[in-house]
Amino acid sequence: MEIIIDIEDSEPLFAQLVTQIKQAVLSGKILPGDSLPSIRQLAGDLRLNNKTVAKAYRLLERDSVIEAKGYRGTFIHPQAVANSTVDINDIITRKLGDTIQALRTSGATDSEIRIVFAELMKAHQEQGVNL
Amino acid sequence: MEIIIDIEDSEPLFAQLVTQIKQAVLSGKILPGDSLPSIRQLAGDLRLNNKTVAKAYRLLERDSVIEAKGYRGTFIHPQAVANSTVDINDIITRKLGDTIQALRTSGATDSEIRIVFAELMKAHQEQGVNL
DNA sequence: ATATGTACCATTAGTACAAATGGTACAACT
DNA sequence: AGTTGTACCATTTGTACTAATGGTACATAT
């Protein structure tokens, strides 16, 4: 498995990692059950900070593409292939886009939408929910 | 009609104007058909910039609380009373809140939602839609 | 001439967030 | 002792937005 990180790319480093690992799963270069390098090792190989790799792993586990098993290491999830095709960003773009379009049609300005959005996100965060 | 602007208030100046004019309509202090001071005059009286008052008038006209008739001046809209109770922010909060809640339930992180939201708003703006 | 709403040009200050970095520490296990 | 994922403490850089300000200009009317 070969991962190439381009620090000049506008795509964030952690996102490049996520994309390439999903691609490797879809193309069969890595199979369900295979083990992945540890966060620290991969960060060292790619010359990235541990936190950057940890963030990518965290998102991949949220999508059930990988499984973190603590001290035993991290492995490709049994349903990784199917889950690699599901892009949460597509879902967000579709649902959120529909809602925004409806609000604009109702006469709401972009500025008003932005302000309410910020309030909604802030209110949630103050109740102790974070990533 | 008496308008008091508090520059120490955290509520934006243009929003204070909008709120107070709607309140005056609801309480019957100003009636449909009444004329409003011109943008320049009101800005002078309240010691605000013309643009700030113009912004408030623009939003009030969007909500059909007032009617701008060009060189003839600005007047209270015939349906102003009913339209003063409709708060576009409530509509936005409800619809947008529902969508965000659904996305969070789907596993989306707040950060991901924020990024997609910014992209959607930016894409729209680049097509020449502004307020 | 004067007044109206409106539409551009622009700047300033403040706020908020993403992304990435660095360091320290923990429990659980070999 | 050493490794695993994870969870905190923190900072820096860049971006992007709001709100408000100032000035200029326009067509349309009295």
Q: Could you explain how this protein is built, in words?
A:
The structure is a homodimer of 131-residue chains. Chain A has 131 residues and is mainly α. Chain A folds into two domains: 13-85, Winged helix-like DNA-binding domain superfamily/Winged helix DNA-binding domain (Arc Repressor Mutant, subunit A, Orthogonal Bundle), CATH 1.10.10; 88-125, no CATH class. In chain A, 57% of the residues lie in helices and 6% in strands. The first copy, chain A, is built from six helices and three strands. The first copy, chain A, has helices at 13-26, 39-46, 50-62, 80-85, 88-105, 110-125; strands spanning 35-36, 66-68, 74-76. Chain A has a three-stranded antiparallel beta sheet. In chain A, a hairpin with a 5-residue loop joins β2 (66-68) and β3 (74-76). In chain A, α1 packs across α3. The longest helix of chain A is centred in the C-terminal third of the chain and has 18 residues, at 88-105. Chain A is elongated. The model of chain A has no long low-confidence stretch (mean pLDDT 90). Chain A binds a DNA duplex (30 and 30 nucleotides) through residues 12-14, 38-40, 48-52, 54-55, 57-58, 68-74, 111, 114-115, 118, 122.
